[in-house]
Design goal:
With 97 residues, the protein is of the alpha/beta class. The chain is built from three helices and four strands.
């Protein structure tokens, strides 16, 4: 996943308004909480993550989620992941790839 995150940062290098951050289960919980806080405070506006976001991440203004390799997940897990967006009055989208 680190390679995907680095590619994303490189692809958006010419767009300073895009501020990505990343979380994964192998990170220290303090670091995960800090990065989720950055995303929540809009200091980062793209969050790249493993399925660690499935439960416990509540960012009401999150409006889009892209689930890569969605065929690997069951319906219940996809439903949990989709539930991370659409928690406010903003229109939201879930894209399965």
């Amino acid at each position: 996943m680190t390679m995907a995150f680095e590619k994303l940062k490189f692809d958006f290098k010419k767009h300073p308004e895009v501020k990505p951050t990343m979380i994964a289960g192998n990170m220290a919980s303090d670091e995960i909480n800090e990065r989720i806080g950055e995303f929540s405070r809009n200091e980062a506006n793209v969050l790249v993550s493993t399925t660690i976001v499935e439960v416990g991440v509540n960012v009401p203004n999150a409006t889009a989620i892209i689930i890569k390799n969605s065929e690997r997940f069951g319906l219940a897990q996809l439903h949990q992941l989709r539930g991370r967006v659409g928690r406010s009055s903003y229109q939201s989208s879930c894209v399965l790839q």
